[in-house]
Amino acid sequence: MSQSKALLGSFTQAIGTVTSAVGSIPFLNDKKQFALDLWGNVLQATGNALEADAEMPDTLGVYGNKIQAIGNITVIAGLLSKDGNKLEITGNWFQSLGGLISFADDWGDKQSSVLSPIGNLLQAIGNALQAIGGIYEERGNKTEGQSLGIIGSWVQAIGSILCFLSQIEKRLPHRKKG
Matching InterPro entries, A to Z (predicted)? Predict the structure, then answer.
């Protein structure tokens, strides 16, 4: 059951990151951007929670996924409040920290696919870029901030897709070489 839950969580998170990344595209109107970002973060938080629940207790992977879920919830709170930019920045930093913790967990796991640590590292980098972009926007550098946010969203999405592919790879029967 936990393998299925991990796969579902990883899939849900990947759909959420792609949804949020699509919401970062500037040619969409503000209402569409908001809706895509909000629902993308809801899906990400749900996916991270499912993944945390599927992990072995007291592992870095559990804590990394929980911290990422807290980060998504913080971003959601920021999106739903009038002046939520600081909450969104904080939420992105939490997600980045959670991604780094998950990366550390996968890095030491000899059974882990190479896709998982790379995916978690990309997610952490993407979230950090989004947070830095938010700081730029807060300081009046809107164009640079938005550009960093868009790049960060897509880097995070690519990372979450790699983590999902890693979950699929875990379920495939292993073939002996030679």
Answer: DUF6944
